[in-house]
Amino acid sequence: MNCELCGASSSLVRVQVEGVLLNVCPKCAGFGKAVPQQRPQQRPIKVREEKIPLILPEYSAIIRQKREQLGLNQEDFAKKIGEKASLLHKIEVGEVQLGVDLAKRLERMFGIRLFDESDYSGEKPAKAKSEGLTLGDMVKIRRR
Hints:
Among the domains are: 36 residues, no CATH class; 63 residues, lambda repressor-like DNA-binding domains (434 Repressor (Amino-terminal Domain), Orthogonal Bundle), CATH 1.10.260.40. Helix content is 31%, strand content 11%. It has 5 helices and 5 strands. The strands form 2 sheets. A 3-stranded antiparallel β-sheet has the order 2-1-3, with no helix packed on it. A hairpin with a 2-residue loop joins strand 1 and strand 2.
């Protein structure tokens, strides 16, 4: 590394020159006060377990079965849950993926179970350096 005052490349010393911390060569160290080197304290990294809610693959059949059990058509059921009938139809047919918020609302309103109780265990094992998921694990790449 080079001295931040004169640019000479040699071993550097950390000094405070007029209130600014600089890495300087031994020649320029006389322009400031020496600052003792402190090793940064290493804090233990807290790893928190993250649960990702997984919606059951048979969610469409469960919703349709509950609607039929209540004796409601798609329009009345959609009004009850505050969604459009066309969206409910697409969910029941399996054209549209059920969102987490709507799934939670349906569970609360009708006492049905739409989420898998087990934790997420991804297809790939987690890397040794980072515990848990990364952005790359969550992103699907589309190739043209």
